[in-house]
Specification:
The protein is α+β, with helices and mostly antiparallel strands and about 180 residues long. The chain folds into 2 domains: about 45 residues, no CATH class; about 100 residues. Helix content is about 45%, strand content about 10%. Strand 1 and strand 2 form a beta hairpin. The longest helix is centred in the C-terminal third of the chain and has 27 residues.
């Protein structure tokens, strides 16, 4: 017999299969600052936490240089920086951070630096460019990124980088090509 006040008799455990896949949502909203209020009354104290709305973008910083920190009607949001400035920022982040958790072949690392640098130089030239010039710059950036992908695939085939590293590079290149194509 089960006592409704206590629950199931004896120890019980359920193990359910669960698989999670984490993805970065660049339009994610950050949580506004919280206010904690503690009230002391006879017999104990009560603490309540309430969400306080933001009043400026400075309160909404997410430490990502490639997003805008916005406060709108008391709610924080961090949308990605748009246009060439956003693409340039993402390319710079790719240059600064490790692309793979594994070691990267030195020759491939040199190619990563050079080719992402080429793509970045093309994107930086977008400001004030004519539509025809922008098309050429977009093509130049995409060509550099495609070349990097070929080099990564070749390095993986020769065993100079792991399959995981090759997949990380392929994912990054796909994201960067998408940003460049949207310009």
């Amino acid at each position: 017999m089960v006592n409704p006040d206590v629950g199931l008799p004896g120890p019980a455990a359920f193990v359910l299969p669960y698989t999670a896949e984490w993805q970065l949502d660049p339009s994610a909203t950050t949580v506004p600052p919280t206010t904690v209020t503690t009230t002391t009354a006879a017999g104990g104290s009560t603490t309540s936490t309430t969400l306080a709305g933001c009043t400026s973008g400075a309160e909404c910083g997410d430490s990502d240089p490639c997003t805008d920190d916005l406060c709108n009607a008391g709610t924080c949001s961090n949308p990605p920086i748009a246009g060439a400035a956003g693409a340039d920022c993402q390319l710079q982040q790719a240059l600064e951070g490790p692309i793979c958790t594994d070691a990267v072949d030195p020759a491939l690392q040199t190619a990563i630096t050079q080719l992402i640098g080429k793509a970045r130089a093309a994107v930086q030239s977008f400001d004030g460019a004519s539509a025809k010039k922008m098309k050429k710059l977009r093509s130049k950036a995409t060509k550099a990124l495609n070349s990097l992908l070929k080099k990564a695939n070749k390095a993986a085939k020769k065993g100079k980088i792991s399959a995981g590293c090759q997949a990380d590079i392929a994912t990054l290149i796909a994201q960067l090509r998408q940003l460049v194509a949207a310009l």
